[in-house]
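USER: Note each token:
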Amino acid sequence: MELCGNIIPTPSTAKYDPDNLHRCYRLKNHTGRCKEYPYLDHMHTVAPGVRQKIIRDATKTTGASWKSSDAGPNRISRWTMLLSDDELLQLGISMSALKQWVQDKLREKAAPYEDCMAVAQKLTWLAYGMRNAPPADDWTRDYLESLFGTIPSGDTGCFVCLKPLDFELFHKARRGKAEIETGHRTPRSHTAENTGFTHRECNIAQGPLTVDEFYDWMENVLSRARPHVLNNPSSLPTK
């Protein structure tokens, strides 16, 4: 699949983005205006909140839960954090004014623009593969399947617990608490191959571990806990 690739204007919401970075992801020789996320046009019609989440999770750093000069900029583009401190200062971000842990948190979210765009495509493909997901229109399906293969109808699952995910869980999100989160099998590697959806509780449980490290940790816990419970049934909590 050959894409247009023309430079498009930097969105007004991308306050700290360098110029001449955003590209058109429509097919080459398309008609009409260039678009960065054409494969999300249908999602915008059927589930605009999901579209917004996919773009945010694919492209932005984690937002601060409070407004403070110590918290640093709230949700800036991941690729911006690849710039040097001097380049960031020219964009209005003074890294030296931030606490070290804030600097580290912002830097660990850094990822190239192309990787972030691939993550957005992959998350869209996965979302259409959830149970109770709206069927993609023909153009969107063809576009996504040319990148990742057949959309796994009803088979997209949490990559931590492996249970199927229901599209309706997107709509149960509350401010600061989503039922479905975007996670990484190996933390701090923001690529299409490493990124997927998880239950909120599974993402929290995995924490800073890789998925395999988390499984090993659980096996160790269970190997200790099961004999204890069997030998001490009274230790179980009662309702």
User: Anything to note?
Assistant: The CA atoms of residues 177 and 230 lie 36 Å apart. Residues 1-36 form one domain.
